[in-house]
Write a structure and sequence with these properties.
- The protein is an alpha/beta fold and 206 residues long.
- The protein has six helices and eight strands, in the order βαβββαβαββαβαα.
- It has a four-stranded parallel β-sheet. The chain has a two-stranded parallel sheet with strand order 3-4. A two-stranded antiparallel ribbon has the order 6-7.
- β1, α1 and β2 form a beta-alpha-beta unit.
């Protein structure tokens, strides 16, 4: 089967927080504007950088100010309009998870919470967090007509993460402590390898 490339895609980068008075869409007007663009494919938010999702979820944190099931309505209308529908999922950034599960947070060398792009960030090495992400995505996949996923932000903070999970798993893999104060070139390469493998495993599990 030949691969058919979509030549016009809409990326609806719509990060809506919980603190707005309300979140709603005029769906008829919205899709009329989409039709005018001639788009063949669209990406729409399932879970945002703020940490809430735009569909009623029993796994994740539902945005409490939205009207109805925004993501579900957009997905259904997109497919009815003949569009390829891609779900956006922000993987590690979340104010909500930082509040509910501080034990999942990436930490600096002194054990203080790290931020990326001013947002709290969870650690991909934490097994409970990885299970949460995969379960949340599985919930949406089973419920909605999704053609694919746009997986955003699967990074370690530039400072590196030194949470208990990273320290434990790094030592298990390489046989010595995660202590960059005493690293030479070979140990920095081990740390890079650890981060790459952790990131790959996290994405594949999702």
């Amino acid at each position: 089967m030949a691969f058919k490339l979509s030549t016009r895609m809409l990326f609806c980068d719509w990060h809506m927080p919980n603190f707005l008075p309300e979140i709603k869409i005029d769906y008829d007007e919205y899709f009329e504007q989409i039709k005018r663009t001639g788009a063949q494919s669209m990406i729409f938010m399932s879970k945002t950088a703020h940490g809430t999702c735009l569909f009623p979820s029993s796994v994740g944190i539902t945005n409490r100010t939205m009207h109805g099931d925004l993501f579900g309505e957009i997905a259904t209308r997109a497919k009815a309009a003949g569009l390829e529908f891609i779900a956006y999922y922000n993987m590690i950034l979340s104010w909500e998870l930082a509040r509910l599960h501080p034990e999942w947070t990436q930490l600096d060398r002194e054990g203080k919470p790290l931020r990326m792009f001013l947002y709290p960030c969870s650690c991909m090495s934490n097994e409970e967090f990885a299970d949460h992400v995969s379960s949340h995505m599985a919930e949406a996949t089973a419920r909605y007509p999704i053609d694919g996923w746009f997986l955003d932000l699967q990074y370690f903070a530039p400072q590196g993460c030194f949470c208990p999970s990273c320290r434990r798993r790094f030592k298990e893999q390489f046989g010595y402590e995660l202590d960059p104060e005493h690293f030479e070139v070979a140990q920095w390469l081990d740390l890079y390898t650890y981060q790459v493998k952790t990131r790959e495993a996290f994405i594949h599990q999702a």
